[in-house]
Design a protein that fits this description.
mainly alpha; Helicase, Ruva Protein, domain 3; 2 domains; 103 residues; 4 helices
């Protein structure tokens, strides 16, 4: 596989199809994925870097198309939320256990 083909495959594998949601644009048969692959090819022909191409797609379709969304307050909450609930639950259990010992 030529370096250009490998770079194309790498970029299209890292972009999510807006219609299929769980497929990359490399694996999707949706029309929008075909359009996105064509745009990636055009941008590569213009000499754009991988980062510039991904930035273009994110600007056009939103962070949803990236399998590596940026770290924001919302995404931090999604990652830390379950752990915080577990800690809160453990705190409640410990507090109730101590209260029973006192009574």
């Amino acid at each position: 596989m030529r370096p250009e083909e490998q770079a194309f495959r790498e970029i299209t594998s890292q972009l999510r199809c807006p219609k299929c949601q769980n497929n990359s644009i490399a694996d999707s048969n949706a029309m929008i994925a075909a359009d996105m692959r064509q745009k990636v090819y055009e941008l590569m022909q213009q000499g754009k870097t991988k980062g510039q191409i991904v930035d273009y797609m994110v600007a056009r379709y939103g962070h949803f198309v990236s399998y590596e969304p940026p770290l924001t307050a919302g995404t931090v909450l999604l990652w830390l939320g379950p752990g915080l609930f577990v800690l809160a639950g453990a705190g409640v259990i410990i507090a109730r256990a101590r209260r029973r010992d006192i009574l």
